[in-house]
Structure formats: C-alpha cells, structure tokens
Amino acid sequence: MGSIKIKADDEIEKLRVAGKITAAVLAELAGTARAGMTTAELDALGERLIRAQGAEPVFLGYRGYRHATCISVNHEVVHGIPGERRLAEGDLVSIDVGVKKDGYCGDSALTVPIGQISGRAAKLLRTARQALQAGIKQARAGRHLGDIGAAVQQTAEKQGFSVVRDLYGHGIGRELHEDPLIPNYGRPGEGPELKAGMVLAIEPMLNVGGWRIRTLPDGWTVVTEDGSLSCHIEHTVLVTERDPEILTKW
Ligand code: MF3
Ligand code: CO
User: Fold this and answer.
1) SS3 state of residue 100
2) Which secondary structure element, helix H or strand E, spans residue 224, and what is its range?
C-alpha cells in the first residue's frame, strides 16, 4: 500500500464542490425511485443530472463499467448494473453515485426503501445508517484507520447483522480509489494514524445473514452468498482536527 495523501486547501475546496454535486444527484435519485421504474431509467436520470452540473460520471468507463451509477437491489450488495429490472414495492435499493468535477471526485451511496418494507429490512437500513455515522465519527486526526472499521463492525454486529469483509471503503481525491483501503471491521488503534486533510470514502455493507459474497457472471454484480438482504451506504468525508466534514451530505 502506498501513502495516504493529505489534500491541500485548494484541493479540498474542489472536493467540496464534487461532494455537493454527488449529494444533490443522489438526493434527487432517492426522491425519484419508485415501484414500476426500471433501474436503467434511474441511471439515465443520474447521468443527466451529473452532466447538468458540468461534472462527469466517474464510474462510466471505470474498468470498463458502462453506466453512471450502480443500483443494487435486495440481496445485491454493490455494483448492481442498471437495466430493465423494475423496482417493486418492498425492495431495498442501494444507489451509488460517483462524479468528477474539475479533476476531483465525489463518491456516495444511499439505500432507499420502495414503499412498505419488512421490519427486518427497516432494521437493517437503520443499522447501516448508524454504522456509517459511527464510522464517520472516528474520522478525526489522531485516530487510527482501525477505529473506523471497529466502530462500523460493532454497530452492525450488536444488532445481529454482519459486515462484508471482502470489499472496502477507500481514499479519494483526483482518483476515485486512492489509498488507504478502509475495511468495515477491525480493531481500535490498529492501522495508520489519520491526519487532517485526508479524504476518505467510508462505505459499510451490512448483510442480514453471513458476510460472504460472490460476484455474478456479469462480472460486476456482487450478491450475498446466502441470498440474504444487504444494505450499502457511503459518504466521502474530510478528516480534520475537529469534527469530520461530510462532503457528500444528502
Ligand atoms: N462506488 C464504488 C466504489 O466505491 C465504485 C463503483 S465501481 C464502478 O468503489 F465501476 F462502478 F465505478
Ligand atoms: Co466508494
């Protein structure tokens, strides 16, 4: 693993702009998602909204990925490919958006319920939000990377859910994925020390069942191995000496 970049003030300003665009697009998509819509329609809207802000969809073309967003439904964990699938009442839908503006990236995901969801799904969603917030709270100068993962893991497991082990959050800046990898598990005090100016994409993935995942033959869609429900939420966060600054606040 290389070194974790400390962003300069002018870079942070650009990351704030990219983060704001990311958040605005996600909020609009979350408000639009409803039963009967296809995930491709949602993606097309996402791409239009990103471009309307003078930004680029940073996922498009990333390792050959052909869409602006990832949309992962129910037992799909992440990297669901938008297509002709229609959203239905009771679905739990993760929408993941990445943009590049002025050379800097924003990356964020949220999970939206379609209509009435089961009590189990609602608890998973609530816990995933709490786990993300608990992780973000640790993103301060002087803490360690392991503090973030430990907070996420404890929050999830206390409620009986598991955290995915094989996918990670990441540093972010000029590139969508920069050092470090950010596991959603770990032990307090472990790993590199966090410093003001680091920008981290923290993205817990919680499963109702076991933590194991597999990738479908399409090469992208990651699903839970046991078919259980999954939930994914992500923010791009600036580490400071004081409270963390959520750059993608929706
Ligand atoms: N948001 C995802 C991440 O943080 C990126 C999706 S992969 C892509 O890793 F190909 F769609 F870009
Ligand atoms: Co990410």
Assistant:
1) strand
2) strand 222-224
pLDDT at 1 over 70: no
* CATH architecture of the domain formed by 9-246: Alpha-Beta Complex (3.90)
Question: Which of 96, 164, 178 has most ligand 1 atoms within 8 Å of its beta carbon, as the pocket-test mutant?
Answer: 96
SS3 129: helix
Q: Are strands 169-171 and 213-215 parallel, antiparallel or unpaired?
A: unpaired
pLDDT tens digits for range 165-217:
999 999 999 999 999 999 999 999 999 999 999 999 999 999 999 999 999 99
Give the model confidence (pLDDT) of 143-163 as tens digits: 999 999 999 999 999 999 999
Calculate the CA 166 to chain-centre distance. Answer: 15
Distance in Å, CA 108 to ligand 2 centroid: 6
Asked if 43 and 68 touch (Cβ cutoff 8 Å), the reply is yes
165: helix, strand or coil: coil
Structure-derived torsion over alpha carbons of residues 32, 38, 43, 46, reported in degrees to the nearest 10: -20
Question: pTM for this one?
Answer: 0.97
Q: Which atom of ligand 1 is nearest to the CA of 69?
A: 11
| Domain range summary for the chain, segments of one domain joined by + | 9-246
Task: Find the residues whose C-beta lies inside 6 A of ligand 1.
Answer: 59, 62-63, 65, 70, 79, 96, 98, 107, 201, 203
- C-alpha pair distances (Å), 233 with each of 1, 93, 183, 213: 25, 11, 14, 17
Residue with tokens 């990738």: 215
